[in-house]
Amino acid sequence: MSGSVGVGRVCRIVTDRCARFQAAPAEWAARRLLYPARVAEAEEDPVAQAHGELSLARIALAEDDLEHAANHLAGAIAWAPALPEVHELLAALATRAGDGVAGLFPLEEPAYIGTVVARAHLLSRTSPVEALRLLAQATRFDPAQPWADVSWVRALDVARLDPDELARLTVGVMQPLGDPAGPEVARANEVYLDLVRRATVAHPGHALLHGAAAGLARRFPGHTAEAVRWGARGHKLHADKLTAVWYAYALRADGRLNEALKVMRAAWKAAPGEMDLCADMANWLAEAGRLDEALELLDTATRTAPDYDCAVHTAARLRFAYDGDVRHLVALADFMREHPVTSHEHADLDEACRERRWLGAVAGPAEACVNVLHQLAAEDRGPMAHLSLSALEVPSALALLRRASPGIEVEITGPPPADMVAPLRPGRALWRYDALDAYPTVEPAARASQELLARVAAPAWPHPIAAYDHALPLGQLPVEELLSLLVHPPAAPDGWPMAQGWWERSAQTFACLGLLHCEELRAGAAPGDTARARALLTEIAYGVEDWTTDTACFALAVAAWLDPACREDVVAAVGYRFLAAVQASRQRAVTIRDSLAEVVLMTPDMVPDVVGLARDVLGRGPAPAAPAPAKPPKKRRFFQR
Questions:
Q1: CA 20 to 30 Å from 92, out of 29, 152, 208, 209?
Q2: Number of H helices, E strands in the chain
Q3: Is-above-0.85 flag for pTM?
Q4: What mean pLDDT value characterizes the chain?
Q5: 549 in a domain, yes or no?
């Protein structure tokens, strides 16, 4: 669990520990809030747009058309919630409509944001707590707007309100603000800070209110010292896990890490079963560069409770950050599969894989012909007539070049390398060579198949298993269609933001993942059995050297993440293909070699010597020795010929 998750856990603790906080709002709990499309998408001046809505509302009010007047008023609030004229006209509408004014702003699903906020203002006199709840819903939806910064909130007599309700409202709005809140969000929501400041004075003996105030205030730059005072007061009034967490987080935000750790350790000592306290401390220590202390703390936690998800997730992420060994992430994925029920949602695996080649993103093209296309696109020179290459490059790259510059003449120096133009093993070949020219061995896929892949393919994903899950719709395509998409990728979607070659690489990657899902290949097999798909992917990997080689190896590695039973086979297939690329690179350029090295590093249970070679190829050197984990790793296997 990363440090940013702590507030979500605090919100959960509030509902777990305080039954009085569990009740839903009496009238309505917004599950979906929407902006009207004109507000969400337009780039016009919001104040000008609000005045336009107000003009229409005045016309409707003059004609006694209260429903249309309310509709335009809601639109004006969505554009500019703090505009004084909005509130003046809302008051006039309330006077005209009388007791039925709230009915002009019905809360439906989905609800427009302006309708919700207008209703809140109308309820402020009779039901201020309910009104605050609705404003909090709006703040959670879009914290950059000053939904609650109105006169009645700033003048509210908080002494008359239930401090439990005020604490609950504070918890509800703090998380969306950010940690810390950005300048725009802080300005828009300073009203909540003013509210809790007055509330703590009005209710000096309420521990949870002071703790929640600390949780809110630490998000506002320049107010961390105030957060510490509130946190200390709440913890002094009632020292439990919840007030300790709020106090410790405030201390940390104020730059007093050691004091924060002292508070957390005391809370953990008082409640040894609360392992999330340990996970938070480990995150803080790691962020402060004290990784050895963090891992030692986590080892203590995992020895005490080896199945506690917070400690397991945090330890895996921190160990991977330390030594880059994917076995930590694979072990985490195995743990997640074996323990589907968790204390809360975790993002550690996503964070560890983010923007790392193949773990969280496709590897980009490395060919000279694609680099030329990049330069042409940057300088806007138009199509080329002639290009001279010093060596043959992979067929997918040259096919891209010819699609981008129809009619181009490509001159390649030297004879075609035998180990590049012929498959390394017998099997399905997607390309065939005639001298230096490569041709697909399959016809283009049907338009519907191309459109499906274009909707699914992406250049990045949270982690390998998430990429596999995302490719699920492609499993409905026949094998031949998926193979065709590998060599005849569809056109990039409109607005594709990345450079030449990245779309084709992304499309091929997801076509390979689609083979793992392919219903045709799974027919008659046990659920989850990918043996036929892996056999075909291995044939592709050992076929003609191409971008499809490393994408097939990536799909094999993903299969190994999913199924420990197939890891030995995948290690052999991916490892030997990489070794063949390294061997060839001693005689000629192998543009996919580094990408294959990245696939090796993400393959579960890969042979350590091959991992070391992959690190050398990538110029990373040996991995640093990390502190020993709580449980010794499994014995590694070596290739058997």
A1: 29
A2: 32, 6
A3: no
A4: 87
A5: yes
